[in-house]
Design goal:
The protein has 321 residues and is an alpha/beta fold. It has a single domain (18-269, 276-307), classed as TIM Barrel. Helix content is 27%, strand content 17%. The radius of gyration is 19 Å and the shape is globular. The two termini are 28 Å apart. It binds iron/sulfur cluster. Residues 245, 249-251, 254, 256, 268-270, 301-302 line the site of iron/sulfur cluster.
Amino acid sequence: MKKPLVDKYGRVHDYLRVSLIEKCNLRCRYCMPENPDWTPKEELCTTQELLQLMDLFISMGVSKVRLTGGEPLVRKDFDVILKHLAKKEVELSMTTNGLLIDRHISLLKDNGLRKINVSLDTLIPGRFEMITRRTGFETVMRNIRHLVDEDFRVKVNVVIMRGMNDDELTDFIEWTRNLPLTVRFIEFMPFDGNRWDDEKMVSLAEMKERISERFEIMKLEDGPNDTTKHYRVPGFVGKFGIISSMTEHFCGSCNRIRLLANGSIKNCLFSTNETDLLTLIRKGEDPEPVIRSVIWKKKPSHAGRFNIAKQENRSMVTIGG
Ligand code: SF4
């Protein structure tokens, strides 16, 4: 094993989030702009190029790989990629919108991908169509229960937006009374084309206050690199958490690198710089020194709640969270 990927603050980067594809079968308003700026096909990684880059990161100490998108399950060679990764010494996980889970559940089980985050921002069918600009609510709900029944570790990601779904905080928590899953409320973040506005963001503090009006909550212990602050309502089977990138960031223990579908890397979700590795490997050059320098130069934290809103950044659909 080569020496790990460390930045100048001593943070070890062993968690690779891979956006397999920019395309998605939903059109969530906070994620996909009205007119997405797709990367031309020839500028996207082929299967072999993606595997080559992921193997390189694994050789540099990456021990956790999360597959994201767009929607990872719409990538036609998803099975090839998963079977390749299943042979590696890595912990596999995936973030999906849940629509296609039933068609892939055996493949996921057979290849050891049992940690699934499903994005679902409402428990109201009509509101689902309003947020996603597509149908499919019942399918997603059915697939979430299917995953739970099949003993997958399930987290449900909910982007809380004021005036859109912030009235469902306690309904989602009620869902954890008998279901062994984790609901995670995400502070609304600014990305290209999602019309972010500070007014629409509901902070960690406000969410906790509103939840505590209805439920007694107890703080749970969080993991060393956790992005989520975890809680449980006493007696409930499941738990919930809050991801407070905007108001109480967790950059100090960040171990994440993002590989985009065009073979570029971002050393931070909010970094405005991207480094193209695809051109290097197509020229037969070794991207390792470049990767190490990109990680070394990583900033201590994101530029702060108001500044990142002013910065150019990609749309969420082309980063994968
Ligand atoms: S904002 Fe950037 S540095 Fe902070 S936790 Fe997220 S990816 Fe890491």
